[in-house]
């Protein structure tokens, strides 16, 4: 079955570079075959376009990878801008073999196009980190924007200082240009002394606020942001500075002039097992819509077009352990003041959307939705609200050892008694996308349990479930 959350056939998609051309979102991305023996070494850029994040048109290869003797053996992340009568790509040329020859591993490179589809590399515009101030081999992920105050083009880069505590040298480098060809390195745009590096920097303005987005892997591999009323800073952290959890990375944003969206990928695990192995580079495209709150902080929700794609209602009933049936179109109250109570349906959840609004009583320790449950009620995933810890977690049974939930798959979430919380859970094969209250997202992979039913549960408390919907999509993504 073709996947709903996009990835290229026979390969995986890594960093997405979004650009809105006035009609469509053009999504350039890094292709990863994960098959050096069969496809050779290196990474090219491909392009897809979409108007709804559901249907995609594939445009093929945009930037070919270079040879082992060329700087851009790996065509890594960059940006797309339209200026000076042309379209421009600024990208990272990465060649790990250059290190043994004493040559820079990374450089910023340039390509141009008249139609977004045919690109010509401009090798003479290649430039490297300056000889002092920045590390030579960390000079990547260029993001170009017009600074109206400075009256010049400016470029942000993922870079590192060449001195100081190694794990805290990460900074957002700054370069300036008047012609998009010759770039001058400046003092860092942001140098907090907190992280190893700031990958895939992205900058935009919403109202009176500026936002700086980046992805880091010092403490956790997540996409973070800071906010400021000025490009000069200070860049302050909101209460929750992340958009998603571990299974969403390298996210960059683009706007259609009305709404802004965040484009990242849900990674795979190398073992294809829950709890085991490493998260891999690349996976399936995931798009969140960015929402600005009254205080300027940002949250995310599912794009309307993705939600509307799941339009076919699935008829099902829920049963308790004694066989009593409950209709999903009614308000359902589960009470278990000192125990666990659940209702279950045997409708498969391989590609499905489950929505429900939960209102819990004071003292409730946990409540939520069940996924891929076995008929014997012994196995399944839990999407659990934990009021005592003010968080949303993904859990499963069975699970190995003394692990209270799936590590790295948790999100902070404000939970109050008698205040309804709406959960939306999308599953498509191993991909799972969870949204809470139109503000919090949690991306995940479901490997160990391939199929099964779904349900509702409460743990040591009382919860009312309303507006319970089970939907699937008639759309075959393309």
Key structural traits:
478 residues, mainly beta, Tachylectin-2, Chain A, Jelly Rolls, 2 domains, 11-stranded antiparallel beta sheet, 4-stranded antiparallel beta sheet, elongated
Morphology call? elongated
- For the report, how would you describe the main beta sheet? 11 strands, antiparallel
Q: How would you name the CATH homologous superfamily of the largest domain?
A: Glycosyl hydrolase domain, family 43
Overall average pLDDT: 95
Just name the CATH architecture of the largest domain. 5 Propeller
CATH topology annotation of the largest domain: Tachylectin-2, Chain A
In percent terms, what proportion of residues is strand?
over 45%
Radius of gyration: 23 Å
Bin the helical content: under 10%
Regions with little confidence, pLDDT below 50 for 5+ residues: none
Say how many strands there are. 32
Distance between the termini: 12 Å
What's the CATH first level of the largest domain?
A: Mainly Beta
Number of domains: 2
């Amino acid at each position: 079955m073709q996947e709903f959350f996009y990835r290229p056939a026979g390969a995986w998609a890594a960093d997405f570079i979004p650009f809105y051309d006035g009609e469509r979102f053009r999504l350039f991305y890094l292709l990863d075959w994960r098959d050096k023996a069969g496809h050779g070494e290196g990474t090219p850029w491909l392009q897809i376009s979409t108007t709804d994040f559901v249907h995609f048109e594939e445009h093929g290869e945009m930037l070919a990878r270079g040879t082992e003797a060329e700087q851009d053996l790996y065509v890594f992340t960059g940006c797309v801008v339209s200026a000076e009568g042309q379209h421009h790509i600024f990208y990272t040329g990465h060649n790990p073999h250059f290190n043994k020859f004493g040559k820079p591993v990374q450089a910023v490179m340039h390509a141009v196009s008249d139609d977004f589809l045919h690109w010509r590399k401009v090798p003479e515009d290649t430039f490297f980190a300056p000889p002092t101030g920045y590390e030579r081999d960390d000079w990547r992920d260029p993001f170009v924007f017009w600074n109206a105050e400075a009256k010049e083009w400016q470029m942000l880069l993922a870079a590192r200082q060449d001195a100081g505590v190694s794990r805290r040298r990460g900074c957002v480098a700054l370069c300036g240009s008047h012609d998009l060809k010759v770039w001058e390195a400046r003092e860092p745009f942001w140098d907090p002394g907190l992280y190893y590096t700031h990958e895939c920097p992205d900058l935009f303005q919403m109202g009176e606020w500026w936002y700086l987005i980046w992805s880091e892997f010092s403490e956790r591999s997540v996409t973070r942001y800071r906010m400021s009323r000025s490009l000069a800073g200070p860049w302050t952290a909101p209460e929750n500075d992340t958009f998603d959890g571990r299974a969403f990375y390298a996210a960059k944003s683009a706007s259609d002039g009305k709404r802004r969206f965040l484009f990242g990928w849900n990674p795979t695990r190398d073992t294809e097992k829950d709890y085991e192995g490493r998260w891999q580079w690349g996976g399936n495209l995931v798009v969140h819509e960015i929402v600005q709150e009254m205080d300027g902080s940002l949250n995310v929700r599912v794009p309307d077009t993705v939600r509307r794609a799941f339009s076919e209602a699935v008829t099902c009933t829920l049963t308790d352990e004694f066989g009593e049936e409950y209709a999903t179109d009614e308000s359902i109250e589960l009470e278990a003041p000192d125990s666990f109570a659940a209702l279950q349906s045997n409708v498969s959840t391989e590609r499905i959307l489950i929505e429900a609004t939960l209102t819990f009583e004071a003292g409730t320790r946990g409540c939520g939705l069940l996924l891929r449950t076995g008929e014997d009620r012994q196995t399944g995933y839990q999407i659990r609200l934990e009021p005592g810890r003010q968080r949303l977690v993904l859990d499963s049974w069975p699970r190995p050892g003394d692990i209270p939930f799936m590590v790295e798959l948790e999100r902070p979430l404000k939970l109050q008694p008698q205040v309804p919380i709406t959960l939306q859970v999308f599953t498509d094969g191993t991909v799972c996308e969870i949204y809470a209250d139109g503000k919090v997202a949690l991306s995940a992979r479901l490997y160990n349990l391939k199929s099964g039913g779904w349900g509702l549960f409460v743990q040591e408390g009382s919860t009312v479930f309303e507006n319970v919907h089970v939907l699937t999509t008639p759309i075959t993504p393309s």
